[in-house]
Amino acid sequence: MNVTGTQNQFGYEWAAYPEIVAQHREQFQRWIAPFREEDFKDKRFLDAGCGMGRNSFWALSAGAASGVAIDYDERTVAAARKNLAGFPNCEVRFQSIYDLAENATLDIAFSIGVIHHLAEPRKAVENMVQALKPGGTLILWVYGREGNEFYLSVIDPFRKLVTSRLPHFMTRWIAAGMTVALKAYLALPHKRSYELLLRKHSFRQLELIVLDQLIPSIAHYWTADEVRQLVAGLPLVDHALSRTNGMSWTLVAKKA
Q: Where are the beta strands (DSSP E) in the chain?
């Protein structure tokens, strides 16, 4: 399938920042909640848009029976294969979510920080639901509009008009400069748990977070109602929509 999206931008990103660090585990736990890391034990999962494999890494470390991790850039897939080489029970594929062929074979299908970067998010979600067994669990983590008002009024226009159009190495220079400002901000007194988590990151990992915001050509920020609409009409029950880090949404649902 001819895919229009952001795979090239993120292929650059994961080739430049391929390492998994301890803080990624806490991030993963927040992104999947109220689902728990231990709920992966003995389950077969799909990681749709696996990036360099960090989320699959924690699911497999929690005792998943097997995993399928897919992405659509060769550099990304190479990084994921290297990071997941210690798990022979995980298949890492060069594959688009739009071309996913699994049908009722998986216990868990999750997509962390990917669906909001796609040109056809609904199609991707439909394929993930199709891949689940009856009773299987769908997990989506996406950007929220609520809580990101300042970002959307100041930084996002800069992304759309400037940084997503620059050569990637130039956007990375800008990200490094903005990370200096972020480090200074994080040095101030904070009470919110997200800022306290960010403090634990190295400069390099903060730079990755900033670059991740600046580089994509597609980035949707959805309201709670828009997230619900994303799965409306699909064979899903027991929906749980949770606010994550005060600025994003996690949707967990069961296939009927």
A: 44-48, 66-71, 90-94, 106-112, 132-143, 236-244, 248-255
Q: Report the alpha-carbon distance of residue 103 to residue 20 in Å, rounded.
A: 31
* Per-residue pLDDT reduced to its tens digit, 137-180: 999 999 999 999 999 999 999 999 999 999 999 999 999 999 99
Contact 90/84 with Cβ under 8 angstroms? Answer: yes
Residues 6+ apart with CB under 8 A from 105: 44, 131, 133
What average pLDDT does the structure give for the chain?
A: 95
Structure tokens of 61?
């470390």
Angle subtended at Cα 66 by Cα 61 and Cα 71, rounded to the nearest 5 degrees? 90
DSSP symbols for 61-86: HTT-SEEEEEES-HHHHHHHHHHTTT
What is the distance between the alpha carbons of residues 47 and 235, in angstroms, rounded to a whole number?
A: 20
Are the C-beta atoms of residues 27 and 197 closer than 8 Å to each other?
yes
pLDDT number for residue 141: 98
DSSP letter at 242? E
Specify the CATH superfamily of domain 7-145+220-255.
Vaccinia Virus protein VP39 (3.40.50.150)
Would you call 159 helix, strand, or coil by DSSP? helix
* Strand order from edge to edge, sheet including 66-71: 90-94, 66-71, 44-48, 106-112, 132-143, 248-255, 236-244
Residue 232's contacts (CB-CB under 8 Å, 6 or more residues apart) are none
User: Which residues partner with 253 through β-bridges?
Assistant: 138
Residues 74-94 have a mean pLDDT of 98
- Note if the pTM is more than 0.85: yes
**At a CB cut-off of 8 Å and minimum separation 6, what does 199 contact?**
186, 190
| Residue 190: per-residue pLDDT | 85
